[in-house]
Amino acid sequence: MLTVTVFIGAVGQVALTCVASGWFAISTVGLFTVLFFLQKFYLRTSRQIRLLDLEAKSPLYSFFISSFEGLTALRAYGWTKRADESNLEHLNESQKPYYLLWCMQRWLALVLDLVVVGLAVLLMGVVVGLRDQINPGLLGVALCSVMSLGTQLSAMITSWTQLETSLGAVTRVNQFANETPRDPDGPDMPKPG
User: Fold this and answer.
1) CA 178/CA 28 separation, integer angstroms
2) What is the pLDDT of residues 163-186, one digit of tens each?
3) How far is the C-alpha of 192 from the C-alpha of 124, rounded, in Å?
4) What gap in Å lies between CA 35 and CA 163, rounded to an integer?
5) What is the pTM for the complete model shown?
6) CA–CA separation, 111 vs 119, rounded Å?
7) Which DSSP category does 190 fall into?
């Protein structure tokens, strides 16, 4: 729902800008081409980093659960300091992919802002060239629309990536449920799907 809502908002802002300056509509083909390749690159990379993030957090969660279950033994043998150090090592390792993902999101925001700046410069070039033919009121709407377009585009690509990642997680859970062998002594459960 969020992806569709943000997409409709971004298309609406591009349409407002194109209504104000008809010549600006020509640049939307280039805009959508740039966004397509940017989204394709970002999605592929983000998906891999998110998988690395999940894999890096698994040892941390396993260590936390085993430490919690053996808390009395850790205290009895005086291993709490060693367990704290090991926990911090696992925590540091688990944060590396998250930091890379955060850096990628900052990169995406920068690139989208640069695309919007390019669109604003293009819009102003069209306005200067056709200053006698453009309504000043529509020009104000177009400029406001172009300035908030960067936020909409960033939200659109981010929500699309989250949608893809969530669908990938659902696929992995379904695959795990279908491919994991059943315990022969366990209760008969219907197969999902």
Assistant:
1) 45
2) 877 787 788 788 888 888 877 765
3) 57
4) 17
5) 0.68
6) 12
7) P
